[in-house]
Prior knowledge:
By secondary structure, the chain is an alpha+beta fold. The chain has one domain: Dimeric alpha+beta barrel (Alpha-Beta Plaits). The chain is 31% helix and 38% strand. The longest helix has 13 residues, at 20-32. The radius of gyration is 12 Å and the shape is globular. The protein starts with a strand and ends with a strand. The model has no long low-confidence stretch (mean pLDDT 90).
Amino acid sequence: MTRYVVHLTFGDDPRRLTARPAHREHLRRLQEEGRLVTAGPWADDSGAMHVYEAADADEVREILRRDPYTEVPGCHEVTLLKEWTPIM
Length: 88
């Protein structure tokens, strides 16, 4: 398994916030499954960073596709999907 870092960019559309409870439940399930290492928004709520444990980038793309945030306006884009090799 490989770790992938994802940066998301949020817009001002308030409909994103209506999806937040389902989004966080989705993340909780992924963490329980061992597929999400950590996740959280930037302090200014302009976006978020997620770290996933996955077989490949396509698996991460599928995880993102099923995330409730991707179904509503306000979560504009994945600004970075990059393999990460932590040393500590």
